[in-house]
Amino acid sequence: MSELTLTRRGFMAGASSLMALTAAGCATTTRPTTQIQLPPPISPEVVTMYAARPQEQFPVPAVDLRYLDQKYYRQRVPYPTTEKVGTVIVDTPNFYLYHVEDGGTAMRYGAGLGRAGFEWSGRGHIAYSREWPIWTPPSEMVDRQPELEKWRNGQPPGLDNPLGARALYIHEGNRDTIYRIHGTGETWTIGQAVSSGCVRLLHQDVIHLADAVRFGSTIVVL
């Protein structure tokens, strides 16, 4: 597999627009009426990988594989790159997130990304992650959607929280970009341009990534 050529998109377009982008990126979406045609058979490994996680603080249900194209299953793939081991690379046109490993491979995750794209290309780093984080909608979003007023000071963690099971916080230098990699239970949004901001991974995948990524690791959007 040759190294993927990624489009020139980024994760920052100014502080004020970023707040709007992040808010849009964390919003929920409507479940589609159509389903992905499942390839028979689904391997036991995939079923196990996306099984329920009852041990979580908020028990995570199994992924509904009727809504997930098999190409977005988490898997280790050949990925030659000059980036350091541990780097996270967002492949926006193909809806993938790669975590670079030793020996020319990477762990690849299917992602849901922004419908509006990004106008900045560059590098940041993963400053830290949070389990079952609180989500605080920006004031601009609350002004547009008055029903969110009750969450102005933060929505408690849980399956209904837009950030899901984990959130990885992206900084540029010492500054928070207001850009997140976070969990979702909305299986049908993986592989789709559904937002204007954050990168969504399935709960099971974002837990796996958060466990593997070291704080300070580089994230690249080319």
Features of the shown structure:
222 residues; alpha/beta; L,D-transpeptidase catalytic domain-like; nine-stranded mixed sheet; two-stranded parallel sheet; 15% helix; globular; disordered N terminus; transferase; glycosyltransferase; hydrolase
- Beta-strand portion reads 25-35%
Give the number of helices: 4
What low-confidence regions span 5 or more consecutive residues with pLDDT below 50? 1-25
> Which structural class best describes the helix and strand composition?
alpha/beta
CATH class: Mainly Beta
Any idea what the CATH architecture is? Beta Barrel
Give the domain tally: 1
- Principal-axis shape equals globular
Active site: 182, 198
InterPro entries: LD-transpeptidase, LD_TPept_cat_dom, TAT_signal, Transpep_catalytic_dom
Pathway: Cell wall biogenesis; peptidoglycan biosynthesis
Family: Belongs to the YkuD family.
Protein described:
The chain is α/β, with parallel strands linked by helices. It has a single domain (15-221), classed as L,D-transpeptidase catalytic domain-like (Beta Barrel), CATH 2.40.440.10. 15% of the residues lie in helices and 27% in strands. It contains four helices and eleven strands; from the N terminus they run ααββββββαββββαβ. The strands form two sheets. The protein has a nine-stranded mixed β-sheet. Strands 5-9 form a two-stranded parallel sheet. A hairpin with a 4-residue loop joins strand 2 (88-91) and strand 3. The radius of gyration is 17 Å and the shape is globular. The model is unreliable at 1-25 (pLDDT under 50). Residues 86-222 form the L,D-TPase catalytic domain. This is L,D-TPase catalytic domain-containing protein. The active site is at 182 (proton donor/acceptor), 198 (nucleophile).
